[in-house]
Design a protein that fits this description.
Elements (H helix, E strand, L loop, with lengths): L1 H22 L5 H6 L12 H7 L3 H9 L5 E6 L9 H10 L1 H6 L7 H7 L3 E4 L1 E2 L11 H8 L18 E2 L14 H14 L6 E5 L19 H14 L8 H5 L5 H6 L6 H4 L3 E5 L7 H4 L11 E2 L10 E3 L7 H10 L2 E5 L5 H5 L3 H9 L3 E4 L22 E3 L14
Parallel strand pairs: 1-10, 2-5, 5-6, 6-7, 8-9, 9-10
Antiparallel strand pairs: 1-11, 3-4
């Protein structure tokens, strides 16, 4: 009986200890953690306030409260372009010294540009439905006639039917991807590997003319059928859920213009990992793209048009100094704008930054450059990037209330 009397209190003490241990066990931690959630309501003041309340909440706050047109990113101009070899550049310089200066730049691979922070890529497609139109560049023929062997370059794919990507037919034809679909596949591969990237603007600048030298290729004009082929090639690479299209942005609104100037563009959180295609031609040249597609219904891309047109949502405006007031006005109305920080190698050669600073201050959501990295040949150190090495920042003109952190 004495043994029983001793063990009963001991068992009671052990039971209490087990209960206390259970209350402090890791299984209780998720309950406590569940209570720690980001306050993503716009009323919570700002991204920085959300971050102060709980680490890691600033980006989530921006995703929930900031639209993509309330941001600003850098990009590249003629992003596919490779360096022209010296012997071919000498040939261009003989016939057009000014053109040689403006063509003397190149870009690293798409992946390197995107890794560096580019969120706008430019492709210049040339229509070639039969194939072979650009298979034998004139510059190579002229060098051969002079007894000079052109540098090796594989042009085999140029015989295939389909849209090609070259800067200037016959003389500036070296590209990271000669086929339009190959360019798209390279971009898709990077996007798939970085599924939370801020949206990439894919600016398409269709080519309708070549050089005037005798024997040069006759570049085809872009009409409705060519644009239809372009859309089809884009859709052959990207699925619908990887794109931000006019139909998605327009929603239930009567026109695309009405949508972007009222409801607006998607929030960043709904746009991460996606691409926006735009066409960079004059309003007149873009008309065939909208033909039969009111407010761009069923189309992949947005396009430059007249500001009061029902299709208006995006504009290319390349002169940030002269067009500063106009750019800012359109940005404030809700339109997307792409402008340029530099052009024709001028800023890089002189080391001037006035145009770059004007572009940054304009509020244009996408700013292109040829110089994410400096060109050491010029010795000026000129580059164009966002302040504080940001990839995407709050727009300086159309700033969302509370947007006070990087959006990348």
């Amino acid at each position: 009986m004495k043994r029983v009397a001793i063990w009963v209190p001991a068992l009671a003490i052990l039971a209490i200890a087990v209960a206390l241990a259970a209350s402090c066990s890791p299984s209780a931690a998720p309950v406590a953690e569940a209570a720690k959630t980001c306050d993503l309501k716009a009323a919570s003041a700002s991204a920085s306030a959300a971050e102060a309340a709980l680490a890691g909440c600033d980006a989530k706050w921006i995703d929930a409260n900031v639209a993509i047109n309330q941001l600003q990113s850098m990009g590249t101009h003629n992003s596919y372009k490779e360096q022209i070899p010296d012997v071919e550049m000498a040939l261009i310089r003989e016939r057009s010294p000014d053109a040689a200066i403006t063509l003397d730049y190149a870009h690293r691979s798409f992946a390197e540009q995107l890794d560096k922070g580019a969120r706008q890529i430019e492709l210049d497609p040339s229509d070639d439905p039969q194939g072979g139109l650009f298979a034998t560049p004139l510059a190579r023929k002229l060098l051969t006639e002079k007894g000079v062997t052109p540098p090796d370059y594989d042009l085999a794919v140029m015989s295939r039917p389909g849209i090609k990507v070259i800067h200037v037919s016959d003389i500036d034809y070296r590209s990271h991807c000669l086929l339009f679909t190959d360019c798209l596949k390279q971009i898709k591969a990077w996007s798939d590997a970085h599924p939370t990237h801020t949206p990439i603007l894919m600016m398409i600048n269709p080519k309708s003319s070549g050089i005037s030298w005798p024997g040069a290729a006759k570049v085809l004009p872009w009409g409705k059928e060519a644009f239809d082929r372009m859309d089809a090639e884009i859709r052959s690479v990207f699925s619908a859920n990887q794109l931000i299209t006019p139909d998605q942005v327009r929603g239930a609104h009567a026109t695309l213009r009405e949508a972007v100037t009222t409801t607006g563009w998607p929030k960043l959180g709904d746009a991460r990992g996606k691409l926006i295609f735009t066409i960079d031609l004059s309003a007149e040249a873009n008309k065939p793209y909208a033909d039969g597609h009111p407010s761009l219904q069923g189309r992949v891309a947005f396009m430059t048009t007249f500001p009061d047109a029902p299709e208006a949502a995006y504009f290319t405006m390349n002169e940030p100094e002269q067009q500063q007031a106009e750019i800012q006005s359109l940005v404030k109305q809700g339109f997307l704008i792409r402008t340029r920080a530099d052009a024709d190698t001028k800023e890089a050669r002189a080391g001037t930054t006035t145009r770059r600073e004007a572009a940054l201050a304009s509020g244009a959501q996408y700013i292109s450059t040829d110089y994410l990295w400096p060109d050491d040949r010029f010795g000026t150190g000129y580059t164009a990037t966002l302040p504080d090495a940001a990839i995407t920042r709050c727009n300086p003109v159309l700033t969302a209330p509370g947007c006070d952190a990087k959006a990348e």
